[in-house]
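hey can u run this one w/ cobalt (II) ion bound, need the structure tokens asap thx
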Amino acid sequence: MTQVLRPVKDTFDGLSFPDLLVGLQSPDDAAVWKLDDTRDLVVTTDFFTPVVDDPYDYGAIAAANSLSDIYAMGGDPFLALNIAALPPDLPSEISSEIIRGGAEKAREAGAVIAGGHTVQDKEPKFGLVVLGFVPHGRSFTKSGARPGDRLFISKPFGFGVTTTALKREKAADKDVAEAVSWMKRLNRDASRLAREFNLTGVTDVTGYSLIGHGSEIGKSSRVRLQFSMEKIPFVEGALKYAAMGTFPGGAADNRLFFGENVTFTSTIDEPRQMLLFDPQTSGGLLMCVPEGSATDFTKRASDLGQPVWEIGCVIEGSGIVVE
Ligand code: CO
Ligand code: CO
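ok here u go:
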């Protein structure tokens, strides 16, 4: 994909856009544009095909996922537009449930959906364009990790392997329900927590998996990430489905692309390794917390009712090690 997007970099010279603070150089979760001395504008978009059967849940998950890139930059979303591709033969009750799921999620986030664009397509696609504000110069980036930081995650993993098991009619209802409730959850409180602690290194874990998004942080920050396998949280059915091999295609792509960056301890079996390459839809925030703040951070998270798991740390070097 980097190769395909090359013409964008070739066409726009960063020096000509001094107010574009994030976007043209190293990839991040969203673009950031300086508005004035107090505020920056954060802009993102995302859309995808259905991950679950229920149209309302699909809309809500797609919206939570789109909003997440604003939260991953430390912003507050305020305005959004729908992007929808809907099959002409899809009953209108179903289409409107998708849109309603997205609208109610945006409302929960404190944003308003003010229009959008819909086209006809064989396979449904839905998502949002989202605008948010962040105090000037305060956006989180992938380049903010420092050796000594503790790595925290705000949602468990295993959404891709669980939803693919659902597509292959191998998933238990309760496992799907668990993954759905996490995917619908906004990253708002995790983002607020990160802001309270003035964190700099933050991203959300989505399609590139923990290893892929972790690699981006490592590369942008010029550090090495060390994960502890036994501390990484998964949804209940994840390991069972991993053993069955119900991974989405993206998991193998992620392994191909990011695999050579990672060293696994020999005791970590194949299904567990693959779980770390599992693409996540609407995954949690991966946050780099300075060592001295880690205890207060965990305590404040619990006060806010925001689950967090400490899953590793940042060390000097490059690449990723999983022990
Ligand atoms: Co992101
Ligand atoms: Co995104």
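The first strand starts at residue 20 and ends at 22. anyway lmk if its weird
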